[in-house]
Amino acid sequence: MTDITHLPPETGPSLDLRARDIAVAGQWKLFWLKFKKHRIALVSLVVISCMYLIAIFADFIAPFDPNATNARFTYAPPQGISLMLDGSFRPHVSQLKMTLNTESMRREFAPDPQKPVSVGFFVPSNPYNLLGFIPMQTKLFGLTDPKVGDSLYLFGADRLGRDIFSRVVHGAQISLSIGLVGVFLSLILGVTIGGISGFFGGWTDVVIQRFIELLRSIPTIPLWMGLAAAIPVGWPPLRTYFVITLIVSLIGWTSLAREVRGKFLSMRNEDFVTAARLDGMSEIGIIFNHLVPSFMSHIIATLTLAIPSMILAETALSFLGIGLQPPIISWGVLLQEAQNIRAVSQAPWLLFTPAAAIVISVLSLNFLGDGLRDAADPYEALT
């Protein structure tokens, strides 16, 4: 029950009403009341929710096929959308005009205001399956009446003329989901193995801790490189994705297991554990029904802060060329194209666009984790 002595200094019926509402509030309502005080965490929750929605509906949101090439627009710069044309509301982009720089022998693009290209919402497209099973022939936005030579590159194009915006949107499916899957595996392994180690102790604790120390003593990057190099080249992309997820999760569970073990060691002799044991509850039931919920705030904080680590690990592996490889699209794969300094100097959006997506997602997840940790802390006063 919340200590009402920490309530703000109000007087009269409003204080009594608020105190009564808090006194009878359930656990989840108290959790929400404390969480919504963290404005940054709320904003981060909205940002992360939008990013995951974009990843889920990537086929509908991306205006083009992420692997479609166009040699006419190699390294085409980003095109800005203008909303007004001739005094009326008409979203459009200016057609790109290509010229050859005879000094550098490079193609250069410049917008031609005299040739507007109309952009609209819910435009027809080639058939595709939304979420893999819903037949669709509509995109969220795109060119309303595309003709030969028309283009729409919101974030520019790469060396093959592929739309960077569409590739970043599709890359979110892999980069964001690999964090969730990896954290889920780490949660199962960390809580189960760490709980068994701390609750039973003895030789069980010794064996598990020595195994954890062995894993933690191996340098992370060389271990990942060795395991990733062992993946057969001919494997299908989906199987490669799950193996990379397992590799990323291989080390992540050890720190959580150590923390869970320490909590269990300090609480396994508490009165409520003894009462549950005398009531006939099994040891596994005590672990998952009493001990784990007692420090759920720490687990929530650990998991939300682990998702960015998983995303960065996948990005690092793919960037180094030992993780996911084309035709799979992830933010790390997109950053591979930024390894060429000449390409980045000519098309800096190849680096900035996927890097911005990674930075925004990682920062938002970290801020969200801080807010969830404080909201789930039973010692945090509701003020």
Describe it for me?
With 383 residues, this protein is an alpha+beta fold. The chain folds into two domains: 71-159, no CATH class; 167-376, MetI-like fold. The chain is built from 14 helices and four strands. A hairpin with a 2-residue loop joins strand 1 and strand 2 (88-101). Mean pLDDT is 80; it is low at 1-7.
Tag the structure with descriptive keywords.
MetI-like fold, 2 domains, 4-stranded antiparallel beta sheet, 383 residues, alpha+beta
How would you summarize what this structure contains?
This protein is an alpha+beta fold and 383 residues long. It is 57% helix and 14% strand.
Strand content: 5-15%
Q: Class of the largest domain, according to the CATH hierarchy?
A: Mainly Alpha
User: How many strands appear in the DSSP assignment?
Assistant: 4
Mean pLDDT: 80
In helices, the fraction of residues equals 55-70%
Structural class: alpha+beta
Please list the strands of the largest sheet in the order they lie side by side: 1-2-3-4
Order of helices and strands, N to C? HHHHEEEEHHHHHHHHHH
The CATH superfamily of the largest domain is known as MetI-like
Please outline the major beta sheet: 4 strands, antiparallel
Could you say how many structural domains there are in total? 2
Morphology call? elongated
Instruction: List low-confidence stretches.
Output: 1-7
Which architecture name of the largest domain does CATH use?
Orthogonal Bundle
CATH topology type of the largest domain: MetI-like fold
Rg, nearest Å:
26 Å
How many alpha or pi helices?
A: 14
Task: Determine the N-to-C terminus distance.
Answer: 14 Å
